[in-house]
Structure formats: C-alpha cells, structure tokens
Design brief:
Layout lengths: L5 E4 L2 E4 L1 H9 L7 H12 L4 H11 L3 H10 L11 E6 L2 H5 L2 H12 L5 E2 L5 E6 L11 E3 L2 E3 L4 H9 L7
Parallel strand pairs: 3-5
Antiparallel strand pairs: 1-2, 3-6, 4-5, 6-7
Helix pairs in contact: 1-2, 6-7
C-alpha cells in the first residue's frame, strides 16, 4: 500500500489519507463494512464515489455491494449534506397537526425540496417518518435542537437563528 493519493471529484480535491487510515485499522476484519462506512462518512460528511471505490478495493468487495448497504441504511448519504440538517416530522401526530405547512415554509424559505441541499451547502432539508416527540407535535429538528408545537410563523423564528439575512 503506497502513499495516499488525492483525486479530483467535481472540482474538489479529495484527500484519501483519512479513509486509508480507517481502512488499515479494519484490514482482515470480517463484517466491518458498516463501521468502516460510518467512520468514513463521519470524516468526509458523505460517501463519495472516489472513497467507495477505495473501500471496494481495500475490502475486496464490489462497488454494488457497498452501494447496496449504503442505500439500505438511511444513516448513509451518497450526496453532500448541509452544515445544518433540518428534519420535519411527518409521522401521524405531526401530520394531523399540519406538519406539511412547516415543510412548505422551509421549501419557500430555502428554495429546496425535501432531500435536497442548498447550493452553498448550508442546509439539507429532510422529511422523516417519526422523531419520537409526538407529545409536542408538530416537530422540527435542526441539527440536534428539537423544536415542538410549531406553527409556520414560529418556524420562521427558528430558521432566523440559522439563516443569515440577505444583504
């Protein structure tokens, strides 16, 4: 195994050295794919194609096997994600209390749809099936901050904490 190389990915240089360090730690460990992907995603933010190819080579697995695992588990992401992750609960309790109006507020404010990231990579917006906070429905989580009993106006105030006003 030689020195880690850098590869270009859509005008972005990818330093593979951290992925190499992670993979060396798991050399010859059976069933290590999920922890490897978790650590790599934690380091790089998402599972880049270049790194998936490296994992395939080092773990002697096909790219399709790795992609299959990465797409099966919702914790893994194949596209860049924003600095701030906004999750709107769409479970039954939140749905009944008009969670869709919260999603509409985010779409209007950030100009992205569910499962998209803003061009500046500041925000990723997701609609999720349940956040487990039904007693304070409707619920939005921004990063790790839980905001409950929200109306679109209250959500506007929450978003103001994260969105810089346009100059």
């Amino acid at each position: 195994m030689g020195k880690a190389k850098k590869q270009s990915l859509q005008d972005e240089t990818v330093d593979l050295s951290m992925a190499e360090k992670i993979l060396v730690h798991y050399k010859d460990v059976d069933g290590c794919l999920i922890p490897v992907l978790q650590k790599i995603q934690n380091e790089y933010g998402y599972l880049r194609e270049t790194i998936i190819n490296l994992v395939s080579e080092r773990l002697n697995m096909s790219v399709s096997e790795i992609i299959g695992v990465a797409t099966f588990y919702s914790q893994f992401h194949l596209k860049p994600r924003g600095k701030h992750i906004i999750k709107v609960c769409c479970g039954t309790a939140c749905h009944v209390k008009n969670a869709k109006s919260l999603s509409a507020k985010i779409v209007g404010r950030l100009k992205i749809n569910a499962n998209e990231t803003t061009e500046d990579r500041m925000f990723t917006f997701e609609e999720v099936s349940c956040l487990g906070a039904c007693g304070i429905a409707p619920v939005v989580v921004v990063d790790k901050d839980v905001h409950g009993t929200l109306s679109p106006d209250k959500l506007e105030d929450v978003l103001d904490r994260y969105v810089k006003p346009a100059a």
